[in-house]
Amino acid sequence: MNNNPIGVYDSGFGGLSVWRELHRALPRESLIYLGDGKNCPYGNKTEEQIRELAERAVGDLVERGCKMVVVACNTATAAAIEYLRERFSHLPIVGLEPAVKPACAMTRSKVVGVIATERSLVGRKFLSTLERYGEGVEVLKVVGEGFVEAVEADAEQEPRTEELVRRVVEPIIERGADVIVLGCTHYPFLGDVIRRVVGDREVAVIDSGEAVEKRVESLLDKFSLRCAEDNVPRLEFLSYADEEYRARLEHKALR
Question: Which are the catalytic amino acids?
């Protein structure tokens, strides 16, 4: 058993969608969430820049005693996960990737839409997964322009955000997609808006949060890292931005 915290890292607010899955399924585990904030968004940065940012963040979580780190950022996973696993080889590091495999398995129309950041859509892991599981399926790769910025600004329910979402989602549905993959952890915060745009059309919307949570549980068991049943969990929120941003992280997580 190990009562040390699990670290969760993202460029900003997005990884809170994964944090919520972990907190729901593992309520006794302590969690430290690090939302960069200062350098968000990551989607338009170079691989080298993202790797440097991710190394600093994971290093800080390791210094705080984390027994495992979840890189709850699709863009950071695409650019840096292999490097991070080499750099911090002494602890489990869980990454993310768009849920292409389940999407391709469940589609009936054989058309799937993947909405993600530009960096994620050209990542080696994503492309190899697509090649492996996407045979016979048309996968529409679309950048969620403005999605991350809307979530960071707490503007999910504003009319301008719905218009942003509509401009991205409608063409995907018009081209026959019956499954839409949310390939960035910020995007589930736009779930209500996306469902309004989809309406009563038979289109499934999926993300990777649940799969990541299951992976974390399997690694906790594999390495005997689960906390004690009587552990009093500690929930901590950190950011490289200012205190206001850190407080917003905490509020968004716990509301």
Answer: 73, 184
